[in-house]
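User: Let's play a game. I give you a shape written as tokens, and you guess the letters that built it. Ready? Here's round one.
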């Protein structure tokens, strides 16, 4: 359940009362894990995707709760009510971005009047020194130059000349401070919320996108870590070859890593990044896991991913570093798509739990498909579907054909239709030997394609779904108790 999909009267889910209420639902119904999507900043220009962020370290200001700001004395009641939006089933980002910007501007103005937060803020800035200052500077520069890419800024700023940066910092110090305060407010709310979840016995499963955008603070501050030409332009872009979701592959557009440089530096940037993420989450799903061994590299000018090729990534050295620096390896490998023998070898060697997705289980390789419950192993996580899949209802009614439906009926040993498919899938996920079973809220509520989070084959109308307040009674009184009963039946909880 993404944070942004929680019910809200501010147009987008946030870290306020509804998040705490949802944690209470989980606790009351014996559910021990909450998987979320990345918390990084998003942009309208990039379709609001949390996997296409301009910062690998910053938090998304859109997720800051106005109600928590009011509680802390940073907004008054009139201001809080002024920013209310009518509740809808989809996020209207064109309204949410300016609304949150205004709201946070007011909160920052009040911030200096609250001495109780100043010491906490000072400590935060010191703890996050490795990224916070550059991030805030980057935010201000982007707006100062009307959204132009860093590669189009005046040369001294583009190349990060000390004198130019110092002059700009001095001139725009108030604005830079504003972005640092906003990050403080985000992480303060997040840490408080995560502690609440942990105290309730709930572990948060986070998600680390493998890539950042070209127009990101990381590419600006560390261009040597990416495959760029001498002018700083992208040479290649990331994606995946033709797959289940698209016959031309997926063209993500992100710059690809210059892995030899990362290796030479003992993956220092990755060490900082993983450390930062593990401070936020209890378990970390590594997005596009296979791309760490070998990735699909597409020439920068190509319009589809079909012309790409496989190129060596961080390789075995990367995973040796992970084991050395993070010996408990609290990771879940997103091992979907084209999985080669070298990926399987790494997963087995380091005992990373992989992913099993029930929607992938009934294709042509039936009954040997590894996503089928009888082929699961304890060291994996089973999902009814992921954020990239349609909901079970949408999948059943729109995607799969008669042959697959017959396999499902044969496998489950009963007549299956749109009425019972959801809870049959939830039941076999819960009964799997997989150590972790993740069920989407959309599938618990039997929602259709309108509740799909993301369609990788498109760039429009994604990352918008909102749970509505009127759906909470069904979730609380029917769906969650039924899930709790299945969890007890299959010994997932006491």
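Assistant: Ready! My guess for every position:
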């Amino acid at each position: 359940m993404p944070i942004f999909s929680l019910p809200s009267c501010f147009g987008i889910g946030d870290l306020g009362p509804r998040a705490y209420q949802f944690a209470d639902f989980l606790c009351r119904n014996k559910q021990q894990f909450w998987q979320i999507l990345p918390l990084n900043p998003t942009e309208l220009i990039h379709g609001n995707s949390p996997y296409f962020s301009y910062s690998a370290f910053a938090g998304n200001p859109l997720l800051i709760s106005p109600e928590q700001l009011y509680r802390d004395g940073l907004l008054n009641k009139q201001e809080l009510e002024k920013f209310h939006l009518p509740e809808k089933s989809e996020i209207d980002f064109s309204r949410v971005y300016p609304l949150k910007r205004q709201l946070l501007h007011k909160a920052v103005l009040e911030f200096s009047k609250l001495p109780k937060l100043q010491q906490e803020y000072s400590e935060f800035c010191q703890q996050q020194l490795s990224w916070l200052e550059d991030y805030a500077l980057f935010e201000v520069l982007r707006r100062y130059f009307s959204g132009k890419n860093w590669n189009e800024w005046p040369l001294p700023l583009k190349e990060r000349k000390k004198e130019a940066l110092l002059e700009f910092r001095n001139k725009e110090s108030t604005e830079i401070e504003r972005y640092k305060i906003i990050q403080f407010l985000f992480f303060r709310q997040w840490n408080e919320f995560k502690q609440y979840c942990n105290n309730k016995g709930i572990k948060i499963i986070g998600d680390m996108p493998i890539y950042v955008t070209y127009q990101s603070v990381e590419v600006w501050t560390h261009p040597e870590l990416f495959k760029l030409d001498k002018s700083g332009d992208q040479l290649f872009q990331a994606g995946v070859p033709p797959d289940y979701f698209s016959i031309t592959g997926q063209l993500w557009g992100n710059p690809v890593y210059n892995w030899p440089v990362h290796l030479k530096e003992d993956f220092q940037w990755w060490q900082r990044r993983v450390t930062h993420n593990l401070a936020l989450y209890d378990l970390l799903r590594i997005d596009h896991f296979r791309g760490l061994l070998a990735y699909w590299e597409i020439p920068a000018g190509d319009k589809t991913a079909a012309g790409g090729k496989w190129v060596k990534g961080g390789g075995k050295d990367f995973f040796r570093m992970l084991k050395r620096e993070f010996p408990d390896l609290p990771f879940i490998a997103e091992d979907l798509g084209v999985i080669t023998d070298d990926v399987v070898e790494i997963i087995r060697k380091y005992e990373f739990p992989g992913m099993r997705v029930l929607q992938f289980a009934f294709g042509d390789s039936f009954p040997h498909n590894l996503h089928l419950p009888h082929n699961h192993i304890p060291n994996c996580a089973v999902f009814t579907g992921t954020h990239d899949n349609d909901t079970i209802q949408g999948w059943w009614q729109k995607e799969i054909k008669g042959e697959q439906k017959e396999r499902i009926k044969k496998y489950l040993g009963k007549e299956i239709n749109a009425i019972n498919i959801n809870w049959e899938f939830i039941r076999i996920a819960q009964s799997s030997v997989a150590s972790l079973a993740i069920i989407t809220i959309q599938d618990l509520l039997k929602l259709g394609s309108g509740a799909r989070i993301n369609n990788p084959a498109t760039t429009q109308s994604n990352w918008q779904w909102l749970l509505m307040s009127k759906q909470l009674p069904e979730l609380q009184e029917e769906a969650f108790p039924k899930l709790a009963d299945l969890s007890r039946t299959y010994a997932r909880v006491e």
